[in-house]
Amino acid sequence: MNAPLNWGELASSLAADFAQRAAKHDLEGSFPFQNFTDLHRAGLLTLAAPAELGGQNATLAQLGEVIGAIGHGDPATALVLIMQYVQHRSLGRADKRWPRDLAQRVVREAAEKGALINALRVEPDLGTPARGGLPATTARLTPEGWRLNGHKVYSTGVPVLQWYAVWVRTDETPPRVGTLLVPAGLPGTRIVETWDHLGLRASGSHDVIFEEVLVPLGHEVDLRQPQDWGAGDPQLQAEMTVLMGALYTGVARAGRDWLLGFLRERKPSALGASLATLPRVQEAVGRIEGLLLANDRLLRGLARDIDAGLEVAGSDSALIKSLVTNQAVQAVEIAQSLSSNHGLARRNPLERHWRDVLCGRIHTPQDDSVWVAAGRRALGV
Fold this sequence. Notes:
The chain is α+β, with helices and mostly antiparallel strands. Helix content is 49%, strand content 15%. GO terms for molecular function: flavin adenine dinucleotide binding; oxidoreductase activity, acting on the CH-CH group of donors.
C-alpha cells in the first residue's frame, strides 16, 4: 500500500470546520450532513476497510487518531464515523462470515457515494444485546426474500445511513440469530425521530421500525444458533475501547483548550492579573493534563497491541474503557469547577463538552459490569 496521507492532520483540519457548526447542531438537535460530505470528499470514510475489499487498511492506532481529532471538533460526527469504521473492520474478519460480494459492495459504495453503515441492535424491551437475550426483531424467509419486522432504538447516524446491519432472529424452530444487511429506504421502513438527549444531540440516534420489509435473498450476513454466539467478541470490544476512548478524550481535550483560553483572558479586578497566574489554578490544570496523558498512553498502548495481533483479554479492555471514560469526564468537571458560571453558560462551549463527555459512561461495557468482572477475576470466583 502506498504511504498514506497524514490522516490525523487531515481530520484535524476538517474538525476545525465541524467545530464551527457543532453548537448550532447541538442546539437544534439537527444532523450534520455537511460533515459527512466533507469526510467523503477527503477520503476518510473507507480508512478502516481491508485493502483487498477496496479500503485503505488503516491501523487501529491511525483510526484512533482520526476519531480523536473529529471528536475534538464534533463528537456526534465522530460517533457515527466510529460505527462506520467498526463495521468496515469486521468485513475482512473470517469469523464474521460476510459474503464477499456484499462486503465489496459496502466498501465500493462508501468510496464512490459516501455510503455509511451501522449496526442496529438495541430494542425497547431487549435493551443492549450485551446484557443477553434474543432480539424481538424477526426475519421470515419467503421465496421472494426475507420479511423483516421489528423496532430498533438508538440507531446512531440513521439520517445518513445507506446500510443497516440489523440484529435479528429468524422465525424458524429453533430460531437462528444474526445480522441481516438491509438497504436504507426499503418500503415498510420508518424512521421515528425520537433522539432528544442531553449530549451528542446531533448524532441522529433515532428509532427505526420495520414492517414487512422485503430484504433481498443473499443479504443474510451471519445467522447462527443463539448458543453459537458465545459470550461476546473480545476483539470488537477492544477496538471499540480505542475508538470510543479517543472520541471522549477528544471531547475532554476540547474542554481543556477552551479552559486555557478562558484562564489566560479572565482578569478579575481584585486579582489584577489573569486567573492563569494562580498556583491553585495551575495545579488543577496540571491534573487535567495528567488525566489526558493517562488516556493517551492507555489508548495508544491498547491500539499498538491490537495492531500487533496480540490477544487482549476482554476484562482488560473493559477496564481501560472505564478508566478512560471516567478520566475524560473528570477532566471536564475540573474545567467546570475552574470556570464557575462561565463554564455552564450556553454561550461558551464547555457546557456542551460536559454534556457530551457524560455519554461515554453509557456505552457498553458499563461500569458496573466492568468492575464486577474485574473483581471476580481478581478474587478467583
